[in-house]
Structures are given as structure tokens and as C-alpha cells.
Amino acid sequence: MSTSLSLRSIYDLNGLVALVTGGGTGIGLMIAQGLAANGAKVYITGRRKAVLDKVVDAWDQEKAASSPRDADSCGISVQMDVTSRESILEVKKLIQDKEGKLHILVNNAGQVGPVSTFLRDPTAPECKDPETLGQALFDNETFGEWSDIYTINTFSIFFVTTAFLGLLDKGSRESQTPGFTSSVINITSMSGVIKVAQEHFGYNSAKAAASHLTRMMATEFAIRGVQVRVNSIAPGVYESQLTHDVIPPEMVDKVGKGLMPVPAKRAGTAQEMAGTVIYLASPAGCYTNGQEIVVDGGFIAVNPSV
Description:
Layout: H1 7-10, E1 17-21, H2 26-37, E2 41-46, H3 49-65, E3 74-79, H4 85-98, E4 104-107, H5 130-140, H6 143-173, E5 182-187, H7 201-223, E6 228-235, H8 252-256, H9 270-281, E7 292-295, H10 299-302
Helix pairs in contact: 2-9, 4-6, 6-7
Family: Belongs to the short-chain dehydrogenases/reductases (SDR) family.
Keywords: Membrane, NADP, Oxidoreductase, Transmembrane, Transmembrane helix
Protein name: NAD(P)-binding protein
């Protein structure tokens, strides 16, 4: 039986260098932990250095208490603001000086933005007629709030990816694994796929823009011979700071805010999120490019989507 088809071979991350934005909490933390647990050297970034340091300290303690893993498998905390070109370039220089290449970039940083809670209740005074509804939406949100949500959820993906593109391409060209290519994985959302606003037009439209940006980058890089794949993962309801952390089953549909309930009747798990990222980043995913994988417990199967 061929060892090339073993799990260890197909999903091998040993020796790979990864960077995860927004990696200190929620989905980003799930991803960073999954990459590190399977052999990658993971740089986790975020604005709050203390949060990142706490995560790395916990990893180090766990590693010391358990059986030794690959020597290069670890977590390194690095402060980075994905909405600042200067901050992005500082971290690029750090990775360039310390590693000389990059294999995995996960663009996960994001936030919700302005929310119009009256949309959940058709009997709310703001929804009594078209004029009132339009004025309520107009008054409740600002250009600045929309600009902020697009800056972190969409614009940052473009600037972080382009900054690290050369290092990612180098990671592909220096790989000793046949057919391996470095990977950009953008964390979008099922909210960018469905046609209901879920009380936040700005967030949903920014995530939809991130999904299309993923496809454009995959195409533009491919036709120019850049050896970097770009895909996205659109999570459904997962436990994170955006969803107030722990989500009991009875709260899943309140968080999802769909017209129909989540068929899985629960939130997604760290294993399901990390596993999807590991697939795309590992040799198993190297024939996948320009795609969006929706991991949502069946949410868009029962709710209007594009």
C-alpha cells in the first residue's frame, strides 16, 4: 500500500511557515492551533499583543507537558494591524528576515460593523412602511462605519496578500514536495453568500466582496505564473468573539439569523474549521484554486443564497 496516500503524507504540514491574522481568538485561534498541532510554524498576529502572548504561552506549556512534536512546530505572537500598510510591511520584513519564505497565509481578521437590530422584527416601528424603513436604515449607519468594515474585512485581504506574495511564491519554488504550492486562505462568511442581511448590510456585502476578491486574485496570479493558490472558507455559526464566544445549541439560530434554522442544529467546531484549512494548506489541497468552501452546517442549503 502506497505511503503517499497516508494521512501523514497527504496532510503533512511539517516544515511549513504560516501566518494567521486575527489569530488570538475565535476562528483565527482555531486555525492557528490546528496548523501548529499538525507541524507548522505559525506566526499569529493581531492588534492586542497581550492576547497573542497568552495564547503562545499556553501552547508552550502544553507542548512541554506532552510528547515532543516537530521542532519547528510552534506559535509565535506578532503584533500587526491589518489596516495599516506600515504595520503590514514591518511584519513582512520580520518574516523575510527570520524565514525567507512563507507557505500559508490565512486572512482571518475581521469585525461585524454597524447593526440594524430592528430588521429582525417586522412589527418594529422602523419597519412600518418603506419611507420609515429607509429613513431608519439611513439614520442608523454612517459612511465611516461602512468604510471601517470594508477596510478590515475586504481591503486588508488585498494589502496583506500582495505584501506577502513574493514570500509565498518563494515558499512554493523552494519546496521539496512535488506539486506543492503555497496557499492564501481568506476567511469570508456564509453571510457573504446568503441574500438576507442578518441585520448588517455592511458586513454581509463586505464579505461578499472578499469572496469575489479571492476569485480575482486566484485568476490574476495564475495567469501571471505566480505559484500561489488563493481560496476562501465561508464559515457558518462558530464560537468566536463576534458571536459572543460559547454558543449553546438553542442559541445557534439566533446567531445565524436566517429565514430557516441551521440543519446541523449546532455551532461548528474547531476541528471542522481547522480541518478545512489544513486541507487547503497541505499537499491534499494543492489542486484547489480560486474556490470558496462553505462550512456552515447546511445553512445556505435552506436559506436564499447566490
